[in-house]
Amino acid sequence: MTTLKKSPSKSGVNFRKSTFVESHFTPQRRLHEEASTATFFAEIVDLVKLNEPTGQLDEDTLVCDLQHFFEYPNVDKRNLHLWRDINGKLVGFGQLFISEENEQIEGYLYFDVHPTQQGVLEAEILQWSEERLREVGKRSPLIKLRTRCRENRSLRQVLLEKQYFTTERRFLTMACSLNQPFSSSKLPTDFTLQQLSSEGDIKAWVEMFNGSFIDHWDHHELSIATVSSWLKNPHYKPELNWVAVAPDGTFAAFCVGYINQEENTRTGRKDGWIKLLGTRRGFRKLGLGRSILLTCMKQLQAANIEQVKLGVDAQSLTSATRLYQGVGFEAVNTWLSYIKEVQL
């Protein structure tokens, strides 16, 4: 498969490209020290919202969440790249999330460019991401690069397909108004609901998560360390993290809600999210998913949230889309998942 080739700027604009390493942006030579992490992520938020006013990067990720991802333990800071014009204005960014499993390297890329530079910088950002994956996967027999694109961004789709990306999956963003009453949904006999209450519960929760999604498309094992870092997110609310517990104490199903209050204040909206919902194999078809989903939605409602959103695999074999439709969710956006095998 042909790899990306760097082409000259179509507009004749000169760009300064910089890679984040510790507290400096340094390509081949050391540049001046950049502003704080919060400052340049605020620039990224403003850039993305020029193209996507909701700030969504895929079916369930907001651009305002990227800073927290960047600050996860052991995240390599070289996986973030910024492009500025000669006046120092941010005109593009790429942020890679790289996983290594079974000698296979996979990268997931978030990226965007200023509207005036569409068709100019995207290919260079994709080239950077491929080069970065080659650095990480020098001895890997297989390297894959993934990214998402909203279905109605036709120019982005054309760009990706010209760079030999192919579509592999469709995802939906769904939304439901909370300005309405919701019926109760009873748990099966002797099942109980509880909140994730202590560090000691994390191991059991991770085992439940992995057991719930092991048969899902593109599943990656979740680690205790990753979940521990989630719980340190400043927007994490324990009252929105629910677990259905079987009579023998087994964690059987879960639902995690999320509110980014800073983003709601900035936009004037009152949005919440269902970030995770799953039922462990062996406990499906009991109504646990519906019951725990409604519980979390009511908690969001009690927190003065007016609309709840979630992302879902449109081709899921677990009938998740029908479950969400059954409690009032409707599709508001479709996202295409693109993939490319990267040659060494």
Automatic annotation (TrEMBL):
Transmembrane segments: none annotated. Keywords: Acyltransferase, Transferase. It comes from uncultured Coleofasciculus sp. One of its GO terms (molecular function) is acyltransferase activity, transferring groups other than amino-acyl groups. Residues 191-344 form the N-acetyltransferase domain. It comes from the Bacteria. CDD domains: NAT_SF. This is N-acetyltransferase domain-containing protein. PROSITE patterns: GNAT. SUPFAM superfamilies: Acyl-CoA N-acyltransferases (Nat) (SSF55729).
